[in-house]
């Protein structure tokens, strides 16, 4: 009988962290060995013999946590947002010194959200117009969301592959920012509203038609299959992977 994968959760006191702890405890082949809160030392994860850390903390500390895990030879599955290209470059450099360690940074762990991003890239080459609307609870610290950024990047890749130019937009005056952020040439709109969890709408427009892709997470339990997939796979995937789709057989 194979040994269980020993897992520590960083950010265990938060809503996502608490849900992840429950999911890991109930999963076959996994063992939760440490719940690390904001006041707990990271060394507690190493002392507990963790092979994988799940980082569900906040942008201010997530890079530090991941670099610590790499230094200690512990694989990391990361749901915390706030990553930019400079931060990813630091992780790649650290992994260069620990080539057997794996890191997964997932903008979204919901399987449906990952599929929407993939579908959006495929659809983008066929539609002149494209915009993204992301909707989250008001406690979310960053905007636009990592999922929306990842989706916009996917749309941009699809448009480039289809030979499309800029999205048409005759707006010349927008002093209040009503047109939203622009990510890789795609307008992204962020909604923060009580009662929401995590939702995304991708709109494509062509002459005489509109295609809309939508994903809704009504409960944080929807993220747990992706978290468990990451925990089970990260040890066999050395290096940095950005996006859960890197661990999924999507063709």
Automatic annotation (TrEMBL):
<keyword id="KW-0521">NADP</keyword>
<feature type="domain" description="Dihydrodipicolinate reductase N-terminal">
    <location>
        <begin position="5"/>
        <end position="109"/>
    </location>
</feature>
<keyword id="KW-0560">Oxidoreductase</keyword>
<feature type="binding site">
    <location>
        <begin position="11"/>
        <end position="16"/>
    </location>
    <ligand>
        <name>NAD(+)</name>
    </ligand>
</feature>
<dbReference type="InterPro" id="IPR022664">
    <property type="entry name" value="DapB_N_CS"/>
</dbReference>
<comment type="function">
    <text>Catalyzes the conversion of 4-hydroxy-tetrahydrodipicolinate (HTPA) to tetrahydrodipicolinate.</text>
</comment>
<keyword id="KW-0520">NAD</keyword>
<comment type="similarity">
    <text>Belongs to the DapB family.</text>
</comment>
<feature type="domain" description="Dihydrodipicolinate reductase C-terminal">
    <location>
        <begin position="112"/>
        <end position="242"/>
    </location>
</feature>
<keyword id="KW-0220">Diaminopimelate biosynthesis</keyword>
<protein>
    <recommendedName>
        <fullName>4-hydroxy-tetrahydrodipicolinate reductase</fullName>
        <ecNumber>1.17.1.8</ecNumber>
    </recommendedName>
</protein>
<feature type="binding site">
    <location>
        <begin position="79"/>
        <end position="81"/>
    </location>
    <ligand>
        <name>NAD(+)</name>
    </ligand>
</feature>
<dbReference type="InterPro" id="IPR023940">
    <property type="entry name" value="DHDPR_bac"/>
</dbReference>
<feature type="binding site">
    <location>
        <position position="137"/>
    </location>
    <ligand>
        <name>(S)-2,3,4,5-tetrahydrodipicolinate</name>
    </ligand>
</feature>
<dbReference type="InterPro" id="IPR036291">
    <property type="entry name" value="NAD(P)-bd_dom_sf"/>
</dbReference>
<dbReference type="InterPro" id="IPR000846">
    <property type="entry name" value="DapB_N"/>
</dbReference>
<feature type="binding site">
    <location>
        <begin position="146"/>
        <end position="147"/>
    </location>
    <ligand>
        <name>(S)-2,3,4,5-tetrahydrodipicolinate</name>
    </ligand>
</feature>
<comment type="subunit">
    <text>Homotetramer.</text>
</comment>
<comment type="pathway">
    <text>Amino-acid biosynthesis; L-lysine biosynthesis via DAP pathway; (S)-tetrahydrodipicolinate from L-aspartate: step 4/4.</text>
</comment>
<keyword id="KW-0457">Lysine biosynthesis</keyword>
<dbReference type="Pfam" id="PF05173">
    <property type="entry name" value="DapB_C"/>
</dbReference>
<dbReference type="Pfam" id="PF01113">
    <property type="entry name" value="DapB_N"/>
</dbReference>
<feature type="binding site">
    <location>
        <begin position="106"/>
        <end position="109"/>
    </location>
    <ligand>
        <name>NAD(+)</name>
    </ligand>
</feature>
<feature type="active site" description="Proton donor">
    <location>
        <position position="140"/>
    </location>
</feature>
<feature type="binding site">
    <location>
        <position position="35"/>
    </location>
    <ligand>
        <name>NADP(+)</name>
    </ligand>
</feature>
<feature type="active site" description="Proton donor/acceptor">
    <location>
        <position position="136"/>
    </location>
</feature>
<keyword id="KW-0963">Cytoplasm</keyword>
<dbReference type="InterPro" id="IPR022663">
    <property type="entry name" value="DapB_C"/>
</dbReference>
<keyword id="KW-0028">Amino-acid biosynthesis</keyword>
<dbReference type="GO" id="GO:0008839">
    <property type="term" value="F:4-hydroxy-tetrahydrodipicolinate reductase"/>
</dbReference>
């Amino acid at each position: 009988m194979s040994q269980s994968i020993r897992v520590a959760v960083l950010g265990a006191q938060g809503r996502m962290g608490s849900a992840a702890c429950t999911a890991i405890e109930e999963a076959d082949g996994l063992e939760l060995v440490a719940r690390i809160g904001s006041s707990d030392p990271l060394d507690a994860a190493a002392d507990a013999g963790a092979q994988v850390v799940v980082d569900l903390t906040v942008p201010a500390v997530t890079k530090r946590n991941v670099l610590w895990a790499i230094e200690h030879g512990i694989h990391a599955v990361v749901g915390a947002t706030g990553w930019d290209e400079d931060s990813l470059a630091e992780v790649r450099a650290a992994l260069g010194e620990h080539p057997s360690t794996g890191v997964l940074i997932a903008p979204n762990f919901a399987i449906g959200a990952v599929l929407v991003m993939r579908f959006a890239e495929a659809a983008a080459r066929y539609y002149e117009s494209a915009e993204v609307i992301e909707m989250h609870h008001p406690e979310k610290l960053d905007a636009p969301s990592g999922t929306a950024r990842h989706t916009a990047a996917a749309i941009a890749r699809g448009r480039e592959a289809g030979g499309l130019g800029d999205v048409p937009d005759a707006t010349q005056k927008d002093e209040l920012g009503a047109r939203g952020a622009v990510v890789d040439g795609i307008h992204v709109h962020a909604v923060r509203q009580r009662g929401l969890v995590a939702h995304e709408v991708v709109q494509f427009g062509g002459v005489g038609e509109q295609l809309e892709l939508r994903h809704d997470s009504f409960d944080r339990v929807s993220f747990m299959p992706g978290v468990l997939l990451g925990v089970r796979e990260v040890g066999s995937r050395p290096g940095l992977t950005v996006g859960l789709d890197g661990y999924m057989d999507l063709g």
